[in-house]
Amino acid sequence: MRLLDYTMQLADYVESNKQRLIERWKQYAQKRLSLNLDESKLLNELPHLLDELVEALRSPSEDWRPSGVAARHARQRMSIGIDIGSLIKEIALVGETVVELAESDAERFETAEIALLLRGVSEAAAASASAYADMRNREAAQQAAQHFAFIAHEVRTPLQNARLAANLLASGPTTAFDEGREQLDRSLTRLSDLVDDALLGARLYAEPTLRVQPVEVRELIETAVGEASPRAQTRGVAIRTDVREFSIEADPKLIVSAVTNLLINAVDSCRNGRRIDVRARLAGDRAVIEVEDECGGIPEDLVPRLFQPFAQADDRPRSHKRGFGLGLMIVKQAAESHGGSVNFVNRPGVGCCFVLDLPRRRPDG
Known about the structure:
Blueprint: H1 2-16, H2 18-32, H3 39-43, H4 46-58, H5 69-79, H6 84-104, H7 111-171, H8 174-205, E1 213-216, H9 217-235, E2 238-243, E3 247-250, H10 252-269, E4 275-283, E5 286-293, H11 327-337, E6 341-347, E7 351-359
Parallel strand pairs: 2-4
Antiparallel strand pairs: 1-3, 4-5, 5-7, 6-7
Helix pairs in contact: 1-4, 1-7, 2-6, 4-7, 5-7, 6-7, 7-8, 8-11, 9-10, 10-11
């Protein structure tokens, strides 16, 4: 009976000071966790979570479990890009906020009451983490299914073209032989690109140890330009370079793959006679590599999904859709694996510029 009386006191304190707790938690979240969101997104389910803690304090049963509030909060946090570690910290901060506000008010509660409060916070954190993990697993499974479906679709076309090319080769006439040979070469190149991208994407997803070594950026750029040049020449697109002399510590294969993917995306998006500029320079202790094209800009509906695998513009016929396959996902993962980033400037009606920002030296180097 004594426990229930004390529990009512703490429950009443939380309930009567709800707005003060929200304001203090908001300050803590912004300062300690760097959650710089607008108020509605920042608070989200916090007021309802406090209500649930009051319920838990008034019903000190071992069977008490949080309702769907914690799961809804987890879904919202995942949708705006907050990681699971930050999610757990912000829920734990609720318990800290209650205790610290009570101390500042010179309020004293029994240890058993505080234990009930912390148990409620722990249950809410566990429910949020479980919901977050479930959603992340579902998303990963869905993404894997999309990967397989897209790759199967993309492989079908060059395989059909290769079959047609084989028929032309078998038909005998010189013109048919030349046409068949060219088509077969294009089809096999496309198949090779798909396989290479899929393997590299799998390697990056597995987060391997980077094969870091000192490399000259000019050599990396020249290799990437060499990889993209045959396709550029076929499409009548010129590639110009302006590369300063400097070295970085990086995995050369990953950086070459990243720049090559940026170039190939630019080539595929440009019309005959357009130009692509590749620049590389130092900015303090950072290496900056830019690939700028005259593609006419990126469709607005595609911008938010640009670095997702197989993103395609929705507002064009299929034959004219702009899509990026695995390319930009590989660029993003390669940059981030080096402690860097990739950004872009979109100029509708003109073109766009992708910017690789990389540390010149590895942090542990």
